[in-house]
Amino acid sequence: MTDLCEQPLGLLCEVARRELVHLLESLPGTKDLVVDATLLRPLDRIASMSLLQKHGCQRVIPLRLDSLHAIPWNENAHRRVYLLRSSLDMARLLAQHVRSSPDNRQIAVIWVDRRLVICERELERQGVYGLVESFELSISLISLENDLFSMEMPITTAQKDLLAPANA
């Protein structure tokens, strides 16, 4: 099977890969990557585990909304990077994880597709806003074949309503 990012229309995949690598490189040190379970497949399409390890990610840990336990920290990781969809539920779960983390560890979040104000407000309301570095990563189109794309990030009606005040 050929690498889908190397096909002519796979440039969108390559752009997403480079953007992810740039974000990981801007967060120095060893890190654990905690990924929203719904983003594991799209992440696998744009970045292999060896690529992630090359840029400092020691582990990739799936995160599910229904998981009630905290994720134990890796002794060797200086930082934890969350790759999450922008949603209020994910912001609440992130705040929970930040509050339960050791004081000497750094936390960053990469919001996939866009950073919503409601997520930042929830982090602020939970008292952890200043403890988390926030970034954005757009991976809305992912190449499945050389002429077929997946729109991984559909904008739902609820999300459109959240964005309406910002556009007004």
CATH class: Alpha Beta
Number of domains: 1
Helix content: 25-40%
- Report the span from N to C terminus: 47 Å
Supply the CATH superfamily name: Sec1/Munc18 (SM) protein, domain 1
Q: What about the largest sheet?
A: 5 strands, parallel
- Low-confidence stretches are none
Note the beta-strand portion. Answer: 25-35%
Proper CATH architecture? 3-Layer(aba) Sandwich
Care to describe what's here?
Pfam families: Sec1 (PF00995). InterPro entries: Sec-1-like_dom1, Sec1-like, Sec1-like_sf. Belongs to the STXBP/unc-18/SEC1 family. One of its GO terms (biological process) is vesicle-mediated transport. There is one protein chain. By secondary structure, this protein is an alpha/beta fold. It has one domain: 3-Layer(aba) Sandwich (Rossmann fold). It is built from 6 helices and 7 strands. It has helices at 11-25, 40-46, 49-54, 88-99, 117-125, 157-167, and strands spanning 31-36, 57-63, 79-85, 106-112, 132-137, 141-145, 148-151. The protein has a 5-stranded parallel β-sheet with strand order 2-1-3-4-5, sandwiched between helices. α5 links the parallel β4 (106-112) and β5 (132-137). α4 packs parallel to α5 (117-125). The longest helix is centred in the first third of the chain and has 15 residues, at 11-25. It is globular. The model has no long low-confidence stretch (mean pLDDT 82).
